[in-house]
Design brief:
Blueprint lengths: L4 E2 H9 L3 E3 L8 E7 L5 E7 L6 E2 L1 H10 L10 H4 L2
Antiparallel strand pairs: 1-5, 2-3, 3-4
Length: 83
């Protein structure tokens, strides 16, 4: 079950799946998270971050996991995702 999580902790978790923060594309409190796929395509999502301790709400966590195909339906169970 998804839960709120601190920005820096979520960035560390999704980093294991090839998602990174594109620092060149950040503007103010919005950061752009990107994942590049083997076929050359890219997916991205803007993520609000007022500080590294900023808590990302459940709705955005769910959207991030869907956007980067990191849900249970794609084979990434919650218990593995949040380790």
């Amino acid at each position: 079950m998804d839960k709120p999580i601190r920005y820096r902790d979520l960035l560390k978790i999704i980093g294991r799946y090839g998602v990174y923060e594109d620092k060149k594309r950040a503007k103010g409190s919005e950061r752009l998270w990107v994942k590049e796929y083997p076929d050359g395509t890219k997916r991205s999502i803007p993520v609000t971050c007022h500080s590294e301790n900023y808590v990302i709400g459940v709705g955005l966590v769910i959207a991030i996991r869907r956007r980067f195909s990191l849900t249970e339906q794609e084979g990434i169970p919650d218990k593995d995702f949040y380790l």
